[in-house]
Amino acid sequence: MQVTLLSGSRNPEGRTAEAIKAIVEGVEKGGGATEVFFLPTLKLERCRQCESNGWGICRREAWCLIEDDFPMLVDKIKASDVVVFATPVYFADLSESMRSFLDRLRRIWAFMEGRPSPDISAVGLCLSGGGGGGAPSALLNLERILQMCGFDIVDMITMRRQNFDSKLPRLKLTGEWLATKPNSK
């Protein structure tokens, strides 16, 4: 069982990282393998909308011509049983690194012949600081993009700084559950 976790946070000691560590602990306790990527630390460019019509080779051939770490992440996702998309919430939305990555992913994934995503379970996790009011709208945006990509969404989780400590134990249990390769079918 391979679980890939993508973090939209740069801070390896912050709340998003701590939430990811709890999930990783649960997955590993359940016998699964994990790999974590912090998107802001990778070489990932934003979509260039390569052609005058706003599209590009992504629409015709389901790959991106930008030479960066994006293809490596796509391969990691394709090889995963479960992918966790974890992001801090900024301005009631996804982090810029998560948004940029997903903008490119949905462009290739939506047109990929025989998309592997229905066989890949996905979990969304949005963590907000401050008053916490932006987490639901960020989660809604994340869920919409994951649906567009065709992932089998098995859970969408909101957290805020006020309930963070009470939800960490649940994330460990969620990790154990993810090691069983849950699906919505």
Identify low-pLDDT runs. none
Order of helices and strands: EHEHHEEHEHEH
Note the total helix count: 6
Shape: globular
Structural class estimated from helices and strands: alpha/beta
What does this structure look like?
By secondary structure, this protein is α/β, with parallel strands linked by helices. It is built from six helices and six strands. The chain has helices at 15-29, 57-61, 70-78, 96-109, 135-149, 164-178, and strands at 2-7, 33-38, 82-90, 93-94, 121-128, 152-160. Strands 1, 2, 3, 4, 5 and 6 form a six-stranded mixed sheet that branches. Strand 1, helix 1 and strand 2 form a beta-alpha-beta unit.
Protein traits:
single chain, 185 residues, alpha/beta, 6-stranded mixed sheet, 39% helix
Topology:
Blueprint: E1 2-7, H1 15-29, E2 33-38, H2 57-61, H3 70-78, E3 82-90, E4 93-94, H4 96-109, E5 121-128, H5 135-149, E6 152-160, H6 164-178
Helix pairs in contact: 1-6, 4-5
What would a concise description of this structure say?
With 185 residues, the chain is α/β, with parallel strands linked by helices. The protein has helices at 15-29, 57-61, 70-78, 96-109, 135-149, 164-178, and strands at residues 2-7, 33-38, 82-90, 93-94, 121-128, 152-160. Strands 1, 2, 3, 4, 5 and 6 form a 6-stranded mixed beta sheet that branches.
